[in-house]
Design goal:
The structure holds 2 protein chains of 2 kinds. Chain A is an alpha/beta fold. Chain A has 8 helices and 9 strands. Chain A has a domain of 157 residues: Rossmann fold, CATH 3.40.50. In chain A, strands 5-6-7-3-8-9 form a 6-stranded mixed sheet, sandwiched between helices. The radius of gyration of chain A is 19 Å and the shape is globular. Chain B starts with a helix and ends in a 10-residue tail after the last helix. Classes of the chains: A alpha/beta, B mainly alpha. The interface between A and B is medium-sized, with 24 and 21 residues.
Chain lengths: 266, 259
């Protein structure tokens, strides 16, 4: 269960890109918090800056305004580790060496790295594939490696950028259950970006809904569906009510974003 | 036995076509369809090849050419990979060198010989440097492209997981470019053989190119064909050797075309 103290504090963060001489505002004064141990889902129409928000949290993009604070509890571990949408594994490294990559860069001793990799690969069920190369794995297995790579560094906050979007529907469902199991076991704070409302309702403690052009926080919804949660939650009345409520709002945002796109083309 | 049978079933055309060609050639030369003075029978050529090998002539010329190819290829590989990597990493260098390379590259390699002879001691060194030029360009081009085609998301992920500076280069950029570097090396090695023969025809008294040209000039046509055969064989061996090395060293590259 999430605690009461904030783990991630995003305060009035703006990001403006220069593109072809025009400045595009991807994020406009976004403020949000994730509590310690919380599974926070970020949902919004495409172009709302979900990925940009994660990249700001990961330190890959510097905000043009505002601040991000991540409360570090354990010195010596990285603040964030990201699971990328297209897995972004190093094709020339074996599964095990992909998982140890972050530890290698931090100068962790070999024996410890390998012990850690064994532990993480066992957790995602890939022990037998430690010596395989990514191209020999299915999409779902690659993403398991991506998750193991992130968890191996033992980050303060786990960032996930639509990690299941590229998978087929059945694999995605299995991976959602896996994620719930891993999250319950580790109790990490997670910021999870997805375009699937169903996925957010299944996984999240709260859902942050963003608007597009520019990206702003529209609403924050608590997901009071209880824990532990499994796929059966989709049959509960509360789930249906919440889905309907958030979707009516999200639908408005999507339609507006599409209209913006059309006028942008003209 | 079974695997050999299956292999034969799959490759009988590739195996059969040169054999059939040789038989037709043998028949054509024997019956006078082809003039035997210019197109000696393959069996005669083979006899001359054995003769050339037995008296040591062939080995001396082959060794000379191989040493030249070796030096030229080493030069081209070191400078080609080095400059190619630098061009891949730094846009300003690429912007500066690209137009220069684009102008120099299409010039037929042999024409560099006089130019190179002004710059370095004429003779053996000039010959090697000339041989290296085209291979250098090929290797530099493919290496630059190899660095540029690396998935940006992979690089971003590597940076996110703490790879910076020399570590980013050694663990991400270099291995990411390696498949292309190997393609460049294979092309470069092939061209080193082509150019060394051409340069030897023009300016050397030893080497396979020289042997070929001499055989032609004194109308020892059989020896000329024998040399042809050795050059072709050498090309095939070098190219396949490097391909095998690549498969061994880069196991992560999916087998797109196993040839």
């Amino acid at each position: 269960m999430p605690g009461r103290s904030p783990k991630v504090v995003v305060n009035e963060v703006s990001v403006t890109f220069e593109s072809h001489g025009r400045s595009v505002t991807a994020l406009d004064r976004i403020s949000l918090q994730a509590q310690v141990g919380e599974f926070l889902c970020v949902v919004g129409p495409s172009g709302c800056g979900k990925s940009t928000l994660l990249r700001v949290l990961a330190g890959l993009v510097d905000p043009t305004g505002g601040q991000v604070r991540i409360e570090a509890e354990r010195p010596g571990t990285p603040l964030t580790a990201m699971v990328f949408q297209e897995h972004a594994l190093l094709p020339w490294r074996t599964v095990r060496d992909n998982v140890t990559f972050g530890l290698e860069n931090r100068g962790v001793a070999r024996a410890e790295r390998e012990a850690r990799a064994r532990e993480m690969l066992a957790m995602v069920g890939l022990t037998r594939f430690a010596q395989h190369h990514p191209h020999q794995l299915s999409g779902g297995m690659k993403q398991r490696v991506g998750i193991a790579r992130a968890l191996a560094t033992d980050p303060e906050v786990l960032l996930m950028d639509e990690p299941l979007a590229a998978l087929d529907a059945q694999t995605r469902t299995i991976m959602q259950e896996e994620l719930l199991r891993i999250w319950a076991a580790l109790g990490k704070t997670v910021v999870y970006v997805t375009h699937s409302l169903e996925e957010a309702l299944l996984l999240g403690d709260r859902i942050v809904l963003l608007t597009a052009h520019p990206g702003r926080v529209s609403q924050v919804y608590p997901v009071d569906l209880g824990r532990p949660r499994g796929l059966e939650v989709r049959g509960s009345p509360a789930y249906g009510v919440l889905l309907e409520r958030i979707w009516s709002q999200l639908r408005e945002e999507v339609v507006r974003a599409m209209a913006d796109d059309r006028s942008g083309d003209a | 036995m079974k695997t050999i049978g299956r292999w034969l079933a799959e490759h009988w055309i590739a195996l059969g076509s040169p054999i059939v060609s040789l038989i037709v050639w043998e028949w054509a030369s024997a019956t006078g369809v082809l003039r035997e003075a210019f197109f000696p029978r393959p069996s005669t050529v083979l006899a001359h090849l054995v003769q050339l090998a037995a008296d040591g002539t062939l080995w001396a010329h082959t060794a000379r050419s191989l040493v030249r190819i070796g030096w030229a290829f080493a030069l081209a590989a070191v400078f080609g990979v080095g400059i190619g990597l630098a061009m891949g990493l730094w846009r300003r260098l690429r912007d500066g060198l690209d137009p220069v390379f684009a102008v120099i590259y299409p010039i037929p390699s042999v024409l560099y010989l006089p130019l190179v002879s002004f710059l370095v001691p004429p003779g053996e060194i000039a010959l090697i440097v000339t041989t290296a030029v085209t291979s250098f360009f090929l290797i530099a081009f493919t290496t630059t492209h190899g660095v540029r085609q690396i998935d940006r998301l992979v690089v971003e992920a590597a940076v996110h997981y703490g790879a910076r500076g020399p570590r980013l280069f050694a663990a991400v950029l270099l291995p990411g470019a390696l498949p292309f570097i190997f393609t460049g090396l294979r092309l470069g090695l092939g061209f080193a053989l082509i150019v060394v023969v051409a340069v030897e025809i023009v300016s050397a008294s030893r080497g396979l190119g020289a042997l070929l040209w001499l055989s032609w000039q004194i109308l020892k046509v059989e020896d000329m064909y024998a040399t042809f055969f050795v050059i072709a064989l050498l090309g095939a061996v070098l190219s396949h050797g490097l391909a095998a090395l690549r498969a061994r060293l880069l196991p992560w590259v999916p087998d797109v075309a196993e040839r």
